Amino acid sequence: MTLDITGLKVTIGGKEILRGVDLSLEAGRVHGLAGESGSGKTMTGLAVLGLLPHGARVSGGISLGGRDLLALSPKELNQVRGGEVAMVFQDPATSLHPMLTIGRQLTEHMRHHLRLGKAEAKARAVDLLTKVRIPGAEEAYGRFPHQFSGGMRQRIAIAVALACSPKVLIADEPTTALDVTVQAGVLRLLRGLCDELGLAVLLVTHDLGVMSAVADEVSVMKDGLVVETGPRARVLREPSHPYTRALLDSLPDHQEPAQDGTGRDEPGEGER
Amino acid sequence: MTQPNTLLSVNDLVIEHRSPGRPVVRAVAGASLTVNPGEVVGLVGESGCGKSTLARAVCGINPVTEGSILFEGTPVTPLGLRRRTLTGIQMVFQDPYASLNPRRRVGDQIADGLRTARDTTSDPADLLERVGLPRDFAGRHPHEFSGGQRQRIAIARALAARPRLLIGDEPISALDASAQAQVATLMRDLAVGSGAGLLFISHDLSVVRLIADRIAVMYLGKIVEVGDTAEVWARPRHPYTRALLQAIPKPDGGGVLPAELPGDVPDPANPPAGCRFHPRCPVAMDVCRVKEPAFGPVACWLHEPA
Predict the structure, then answer these.
(1) What are the residues whose beta carbons fall under 8 Å from the beta carbon of A196, sequence distance 6 or more?
(2) Domain ABC transporter, which positions (chain A) (predicted)?
């Protein structure tokens, strides 16, 4: 089962945010989507889930196993969203509900999508918490998000996303809010789950290091267009597009310490 | 121990956060650090290790429980309601969306800094130029700028007061990846160019490596390793520093998953006995569980000074 995005265009308030994005996700593979903020990475992810901001106009095609997600009615889309396609957001401190227990947040959509009973849902939730390596899964079930650290919260958010056995997982900057040591753990978990469950993962990140660690395919976006797609090793070692080259060169590893740093901000952002 | 040319010296600093109904949290538990004029010191560590508390104490925002902070030989006084006489230390905060006043023009905010330094000759626009922004931005409001531009404005405001010590508390973590390295090098160039010291706090080791002369690694309120940047990077000695460096994913296209450091940072209200790092340390020995290594520059029993 794959997800194919073809010629996706999104316009918000007369401004073209995406200008024809083509991507395809394969089961058991991690597809990395890189680019600066404002390049349309997140919008691409949100479009797949039909979560675009109010008033956005979408054209093109997003097909999941032969069905065009853009043509579905809101009711049908609700079946897909959270069921077949799930999302992990950037900041686990805000993506989890602070006043509901972990258990509530893990079982609510399970009971809705999979029509499980209370006991079944709980058993499954505890399984999931074990799978994402939360220590003491049984006790964690009744706790609240604030009782966990950032890394644990992101693991819980991943468990929430995986609860209904999705086929496609969209991870929008899942490790940006985390420390490097914690990030390593979450990346290992994501990669492991992808291999084990045969998930098709779209990993949106600006960190090319993260990309290099987990992604199989890499796409680079700029101004609402995918400028380069290819296997990880080729894109990161021999980029064919000058923009990818520039992104790689801007990394601290590629710069000499204490050089002249008076360059301007990237143009086009807030320069009005 | 304080050398005559030391700009800032932090000696055995302890800072406790007290809140009613909760155990006392030792955010900083005996940290020592020096910054010399014209030197860039990078302070790194995981979140919750006390980096920001240390920085805020140096500015006088957090009261000191024990130990001392000397700036040019005189103790740093806590920030009060009165007009501050100690303007030689200036800080650039983490979030430029919150640290600039949204209702005032950026030129006016930079002029505040100039007034602090009793500088009547400079124009706010000069400072904007120094941080690489056009002169006519002075008449605009903060909301008109991107994160990177705002952080440059915050840096301009801090520099306007002619600091002898500039402190950056995670000044780049709220910025885009593409702007991070630029803003960090800009801070370095401007601080060093004006002969000031820079204490740069970040959890991003690759950026700290780019700009710092010396690196101090902090873990759970203590500084566990201090050394020259190149030395620490090439030959990290403390197991924690090693773990931190190994956790950085490299953008080489190799598909190598970074090494994971098991466990979480322990609760600073209830630190483990002995060496603070021993529950997560891959090479912990018996002595580590009992006795805390209270020496430098590498606080680890593997590197005990003879």
Answers:
(1) none
(2) 3-248
Locate B194 and state its tokens: 């004006």
Q: Are residues A150 and B261, on separate chains, in Cβ contact within 8 Å?
A: no
Helix intervals (H) in A180-272: 180-197, 208-214, 232-237, 242-249
Q: Is A173 on the interface with B (CB under 8 A)?
A: no
Contact criterion met (CB < 8 Å) for A212 and B243: no
Interface residue A135 vs chain B (CB under 8 A): no
Is residue A123 in a domain?
yes
In chain B, the percentage of residues whose pLDDT exceeds 70 is 96
d(CA B293, CA B14): 17
Contacts of B211 in chain A (CB under 8 A): 257-258
**Distance from the Cα of residue B8 to its chain's centroid:** 13
Query: What residue numbers bound the domain in which A112 lies?
Result: 3-252
| Domain contains A33 | yes
Residue B2's pLDDT is 47
Q: In this structure, what CATH number is given to the domain that contains residue A157?
A: 3.40.50.300
CB atoms near residue B257 (< 10 Å): 16
From B243, which residue of chain A is nearest by alpha-carbon distance?
A181
Nearest residue, CB atoms, A181 vs list B184, B206, B261: B261
Beta bridge partners of B199: B41, B167
In the predicted model, residues of chain A with pLDDT beneath 70 are: 1, 252-272
Domains identified in chain A, total number: 1
Does the interface predicted TM-score (ipTM) exceed 0.90? no
> Using one digit for the tens of pLDDT, what is the confidence trace for B17-68?
888 888 888 889 888 999 999 999 999 988 778 888 899 899 888 889 999 9
Determine whether the interchain pair A233/B255 forms a contact, defined as Cβ–Cβ distance below 8 Å. Answer: yes
Q: How many Cβ contacts (< 8 angstroms) between chains A and B?
A: 157
Domain assignment of residue A97, yes or no: yes
Residue A232 lies in a domain: yes
